[in-house]
Specification:
single chain; mainly beta; 36-stranded mixed sheet
């Protein structure tokens, strides 16, 4: 008996030592508008889950998700007020019906020993995890408005379900600021299998990384407006990927092994192609008879549908690289495809029809990693202990949306950085009234997307803007910083607030931002909701109380080496708390400005939306990698147009619409989706620049309407060289891309599934 007791004690000690720090931490996150006693962090074992591989844990997990039974589920449009982080320690959790995470939920497993969600043989439901259920014939949440959710560190197992019985691992129709990370899908490999690992039918994504699919009829069956997907591995699937539809999709580091078919983009057939484009780079297909199958052929409609870019694709025993309706389009074998494309190209004149080899981009060495472009998965600090974590709330910050947390947060930031520890930003709304300085060595991790908001007079003067987060004291200071899983925003009018000013020049390992977002307005606590900033169609009157920010992010001239992944910089177009997601008018001057003369920036799955002058602007910079940029023009424009309320600032190289629009017909003075000025070595692998509205009317954004929402949406100006854009999609703009004021490509020459598409543009 004593020996048995000793063994159990040793086992217990081992488990304790190896437990993920998130499990051991004292959790004290607050949700200021959820009501008294609301708990943000929930460990499923505290609700009775066993994780023993035998007990049915469905009810316990559901209780952890839903307690106190008033979270955002059936009939709730969306909310930020009731967030949750639902944690799963290591174990095998048997479930007999779908787990449905409510709105604003993060599901997090132990990354050191990922928990398994294992379906029973009689499992009922659409997905072991159903991220957006069909309570009626429609999805519960409008999929293009599903934000701020994660699933990470899990194994999803359907192998107990009979192979010929339909089963889905995860159902995930969602949009921006969402992610699946470090998830493995295990399915039967029997020839009769009909299981699907991941199913997405709609939404506006998005980002995923580090997913593995084993077995199944289809690893991932997906339709969505756009996505970046990085490090997806498919083993022994009948078909690795079926694209149901898309506008644009970028795969980075894709591996397909021992599947019958790699990527199927035949949806709709040759007469009605449903897939807009795919871009596949730095990838490898092995022992798979057909790499990509398409319905595209001469005369297919739309003319640019099913466009393809392949760059640095290694094939090992893949007889057919691309197969069309009549047979092989591109032969395979065991080789590396340096570059190949299908669609419309402009180099820079066009359109010219492309179906064949292309010269691959000439990539600067400073942008490269071990197997192509540099990348780094989000650090989870799984080797640290709870003693290595500094809590913001334990350091005196309140996060209650009303207390001035400036001093307490600054002290916590400094203490963590100087002590070589990670600052844990417990969930809350942290009001800040002056600039927070971020020193070198800082590592800041949020709990369930807490938000730091700029508030007060310091941020009130657009003629004297101030940063909320100043990352490095001076442009070019040497240092490395890591941010993950939090949001920055404003509370009340802040016409002088730059949310993030990035000054550090990192040497060695680049600095990083993962799942870090900006949200200006549209949430309780922002003071920019329906009550304050309801849209006023037909009126050009500007409400000064609805001017939310000066700039969302500024990368300064001497900064360098920053990796950004799944970052959404959003000025709200609607009120997330409103029962019908009613539209609002909130003004932000500028989106993301990069004016680093040194360069070396990676924008992986980023989006910037609804900013007055521009969304992305690259000025006097170089060495930029980007995958699937996504923008939307402010819905209120052209009433007022982009000349108001923020005057152009010459020192920031702001666009001068008054001069540039001379002689241009239509809605010219509207926000640029992307503006590149005096820059070189820019490599964009997918971009969607959308203009859906003319002063809140969508009558302008269809082919039949003539795509008249705005005159121009992408601009290349001045002394530029080696600017490369693959898979450019635009909606609602007469011109797709301009060079020094002249249109280079027009939408009507490049009609695609809903956007217009140019699969390859180069300045030379």
């Amino acid at each position: 008996m004593q020996l048995q007791t000793l063994i159990l004690a040793v086992i217990s000690l081992t488990v304790s030592v190896n437990a993920y720090w998130l499990e051991d931490l004292t959790h004290q996150g607050v949700a200021p508008f959820a009501g008294g006693g609301y708990t943000v962090f929930r460990n499923v074992k505290d609700f009775g889950a066993k994780g023993d591989g035998v007990t049915d844990d469905t009810a316990a997990i559901t209780a952890a998700m839903n307690t106190p039974n008033n979270r955002c589920l059936q009939g709730c449009a969306s909310t930020t007020t009731k967030p949750a982080v639902v944690y799963f320690p290591s174990g095998t959790y048997v479930i007999s019906s779908s787990i449905v995470p409510p709105y604003f939920t993060q599901m997090v497993g132990d990354p050191n020993n990922r928990p398994v969600l294992k379906a029973t043989s009689g499992f009922q439901g659409f997905g072991l995890i159903d991220g957006n259920p069909y309570y009626t014939e429609n999805l519960n949440w409008v999929s293009t408005n599903v934000f701020y959710r994660q699933i990470r560190n899990f194994v999803i197992d359907t192998t107990a379900i009979a192979p010929a019985t339909p089963a889905t691992g995860i159902h995930w129709p969602t949009s921006q600021a969402t992610s699946l990370i470090n998830v493995e899908f295990n399915m039967p490999t029997d020839a009769s299998v009909v299981h699907v690992g991941l199913f997405i039918e709609s939404g506006s994504g998005g980002f995923m990384s580090d997913l593995t699919f084993n077995g199944g009829a289809t690893g991932a069956s997906m339709g969505n407006q756009q996505y970046t997907m990085r490090n997806l591995v498919f083993n022994h699937c009948q078909t690795a990927i079926i694209q149901l539809w898309n506008w644009g999709w970028t795969y980075i580091g894709l591996q397909i092994n021992n599947c019958q078919k790699g990527i199927d983009i035949t949806a709709g057939g040759s007469t009605s192609l449903e897939v807009g484009s795919i871009t596949v780079i730095d990838s490898k297909f092995t022992d798979t008879p057909v790499g990509i199958t398409t319905a595209f052929q001469t005369g297919a409609q739309p003319a640019t549908g099913a466009s393809i870019i392949l760059e640095n694709l290694n094939l090992q025993n893949v007889p057919v690289a691309v197969q069309g309706p009549s047979g092989t389009i591109l032969a395979g074998g065991s080789t590396t495809i340096a570059g190949w494309g299908q669609g419309h190209q402009y180099t820079p004149s066009g359109p010219n029809t492309l179906q064949g080899p292309i010269t691959p981009n000439n990539r600067p060495a400073s942008l490269l990693g071990d197997n192509g472009y540099y990348s780094r998965s989000k650090p989870q600090y799984e080797n640290l202990a709870a003693s290595d974590i500094v809590s913001a709330r334990s350091s005196g910050a309140k996060g209650d949306a009303s207390t001035d947390d400036t001093a307490a947060l600054q002290s916590a930031i400094n203490s963590a950085a100087s002590g070589g520890k990670v600052l844990f930003l417990d969930h809350g709304i942290y009001k800040v009234t002056s600039t927070l300085s971020i020193p070198a060595g800082s590592k800041i991790v949020g709990e369930g997307y807490p938000i730091i908001v700029a508030s007060g007079a310091t941020f009130g003067d657009m003629n004297n803007p101030k940063p909320l987060l100043q990352v490095g004291a001076n442009s070019g200071d040497v240092g490395q910083v890591e941010f993950s899983d939090f949001v920055v925003g404003t509370q009340g009018p802040a016409p002088g607030a730059t949310l993030i000013e990035w000054n550090f020049a990192s040497s060695g390992t680049p600095s990083g931002m993962w799942d870090v977002h900006a949200r200006v307005g549209g949430f309780q606590g922002s003071q920019f909701t329906v009550a304050e900033c309801l849209k006023q169609p037909g009126s050009a009157t500007i409400n000064p109380n609805c001017i939310g920010a000066y700039m969302l992010m500024h990368i300064t001239p001497k900064a360098s080496n920053l990796y950004m992944e799944n970052t959404w910089l959003w000025t709200a177009d609607h009120d997330i708390e409103d029962a019908t997601n009613t539209q609002i008018t909130v003004y932000s001057g500028r989106g993301l400005l990069i004016e680093s003369t040194v360069g070396n920036f990676w924008l992986v799955g980023t989006a910037v939306e609804h900013n007055n002058l521009y969304n992305y602007q690259l000025v006097n910079t170089k060495n930029i990698f980007a995958s699937m940029l996504q923008t939307e023009t402010p819905y209120y424009q052209p009433l007022p147009d982009a000349t108001q309320p923020f005057p152009a600032v010459t020192a920031l190289a702001d666009p001068d619409f008054a001069a540039a629009c001379s002689g241009v017909s239509g809605n010219c003075a509207t926000s640029w989706g992307l503006r590149i000025v005096d820059s070189s070595d820019v490599f964009i692998y997918g971009a969607g620049h959308y203009s859906f509205f003319n002063n809140y009317s969508t009558d302008c954004s269809t082919v039949n309407a003539g795509e008249t929402c705005q005159s121009r949406i992408v601009s290349i100006e001045g002394s530029t060289s080696n600017v490369n854009v693959y898979a450019l999609n635009t909606i609602g703009s007469l011109s797709m891309i301009d060079k020094d004021g002249a249109s280079m490509a027009k939408w009507q020459d490049n009609v695609n599934v809903f956007p217009a598409n140019v699969v390859l543009f180069r300045t030379g």
